[in-house]
């Protein structure tokens, strides 16, 4: 539904970096070769969306732009070179945009311009995101969803489907280190937005999870939430105490007679050089794997080098996921192996209109650890 005419739409814009956002009437984009225009049904708001646009995180991005994040939408129009996507299809829009002639240039739509000259150039061309009634997206970032299966047979609502965009992040790291069914993975910290997502995903992938966190309440909530779906020994919790010896002893006790195969790190910048990081690495079996997906900005994070070398540990960094990872992830959801929304014990996603963007950003920041999603619904009055 457009707001006034069929040629204009509402969009949540920012004219200069870190200045307040404003809802404006702008032209609906048109589909050109290589693109699709989507009607945005629900766009994700993450725990630090506010920090991106108010400059707290100092993310580089181009302005003016329409703000946004990954979203669920319906195809409004496709460019003339589209061979599969069709008007009316329900789709997931992934914000990870890669250069078509050199995929090492990557940026996140409407969030960060990436770290290369090419990615910055690319963002100039694709500046506008999903906090609008319509968005123009690169064709390769639009993934068709099996609507009959997801919304019919599995009974999901649009906001449930949006939670896939959060779970895709840990998916990128966990499949990058080849997490296998029956293996044991430490997730730390496991109490934030992507950490709780990693726990849910690793369980669905068939792994045993040791969730580390400072917040005992959230750790208990995680055990409770998954207790109906999985036996108690599939999800163990270990407190982050700030004492290396204590944390290593607790990890050993949690693992019992089985080895710890992998460590999924999703540390925020505030946790740089925290004890749990070393404790988890030191607790890995020989040839264990580590996925580094955290937001630590320092180039000087301490690594227990001696241990990494002698134990043949593999350290892999991962920004988001690869394009080919997305259809694999969708298969997991469509097969019913990974549950979403209420089926996964999650509270209903909180919905806000574009005009309520401030409330939405605050809400997302305050509810990161209880696993409750937040979204903007541009058509909402
Ligand atoms: N690689 C990628 O592609 C990618 C994608 C998305 C996000 N990220 C990064 O992932 C990080 C986490 O994002 P998020 O949205 O999950 O953040 P979040 O919801 O704010 O969660 C942060 C988590 O870190 C914990 N924590 C904070 N300070 C800590 C400390 N000093 N010691 C131990 N634990 C601490 C919090 O625990 P408490 O509950 O105890 O405070 C919470 O569990 C971000 O920094 C982001 O930049 C990376």
Task: Tell me what the structure shows.
The chain is an alpha/beta fold. The protein folds into two domains: 8-156 and 340-376, Quinone Oxidoreductase, Chain A, domain 1, CATH 3.90.180; 167-317, 3-Layer(aba) Sandwich (Rossmann fold). Helices cover 29% and strands 23% of the residues. It has eleven helices and 18 strands. The strands form four sheets. Strands 3, 5, 6, 9, 10, 17 and 18 form a seven-stranded mixed β-sheet that branches. Helix 4 (158-176) packs across helix 5 (193-204), helix 4 (158-176) packs across helix 10 (325-334) and helix 7 (244-255) crosses helix 8 (275-282). It starts with 7 loop residues before the first strand and ends in a 5-residue tail after the last strand. The relative contact order is 0.15. The structure holds NADP nicotinamide-adenine-dinucleotide phosphate. The site of NADP nicotinamide-adenine-dinucleotide phosphate has 28 residues, from helix 5.
Structural class, please?
alpha/beta
Structurally, the number of domains stands at 2
Unreliable spans are: none
Query: How many runs of DSSP E, i.e. beta strands?
Result: 18
The helix tally amounts to: 11
**What general form does the structure show?**
globular
> CATH topology of the largest domain, which one?
Quinone Oxidoreductase, Chain A, domain 1
How big a fraction of the residues is strand? 15-25%
Mean pLDDT across all amino acids: 95
Largest sheet: 7 strands, mixed
**CATH-defined architecture of the largest domain:** Alpha-Beta Complex
């Amino acid at each position: 539904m457009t707001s006034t005419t069929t040629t204009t739409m509402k969009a949540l814009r920012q004219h200069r970096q870190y200045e307040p956002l404003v809802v404006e009437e702008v032209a609906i984009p048109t589909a050109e070769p290589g693109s699709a225009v989507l009607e945005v049904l629900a766009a994700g708001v993450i725990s630090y969306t506010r920090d991106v646009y108010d400059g707290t995180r100092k993310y580089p991005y181009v302005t003016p732009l329409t703000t946004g994040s990954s979203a669920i939408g319906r195809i409004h129009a496709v460019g003339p070179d589209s061979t599969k996507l069709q008007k009316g299809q329900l789709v997931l829009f992934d914000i990870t945009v890669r250069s078509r002639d050199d995929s090492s240039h990557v940026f996140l739509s409407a969030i960060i311009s990436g770290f290369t000259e090419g990615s910055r150039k690319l963002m100039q061309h694709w500046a506008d995101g999903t906090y609008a009634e319509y968005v123009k997206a690169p064709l390769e970032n639009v993934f068709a969803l099996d609507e009959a299966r997801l919304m019919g047979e599995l009974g999901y609502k649009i906001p449930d489907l949006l939670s896939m965009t959060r779970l895709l992040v840990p998916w990128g790291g966990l499949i990058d280190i080849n997490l296998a069914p029956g293996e044991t993975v430490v997730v730390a910290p496991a109490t934030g937005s992507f950490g709780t997502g990693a726990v849910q995903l690793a369980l669905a992938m068939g792994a045993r999870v040791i969730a580390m966190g400072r917040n005992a309440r959230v750790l208990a909530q995680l055990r409770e939430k998954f207790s109906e779906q999985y036996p108690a020994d599939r999800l163990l919790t270990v407190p982050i105490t700030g004492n290396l010896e204590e944390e290593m002893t607790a990890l050993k006790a949690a693992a019992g007679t089985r080895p710890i195969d992998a460590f999924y790190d999703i540390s925020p910048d505030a946790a740089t050089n925290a004890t749990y990081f070393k404790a988890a690495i030191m607790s890995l079996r020989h040839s264990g794997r580590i996925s580094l997906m955290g937001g630590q900005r320092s180039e000087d994070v301490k690594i227990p080098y001696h241990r990494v070398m002698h134990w043949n540990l593999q350290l892999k960094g991962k920004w988001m996921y690869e394009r080919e990872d997305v259809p694999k992830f969708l298969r997991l959801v469509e097969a019913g192996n990974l549950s979403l929304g209420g089926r996964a014990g999650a509270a209903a996603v909180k919905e806000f209109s574009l005009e309520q963007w401030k409330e939405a950003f605050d809400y997302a920041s305050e509810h990161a650890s209880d696993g409750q999603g937040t979204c903007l619904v541009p058509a909402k009055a």
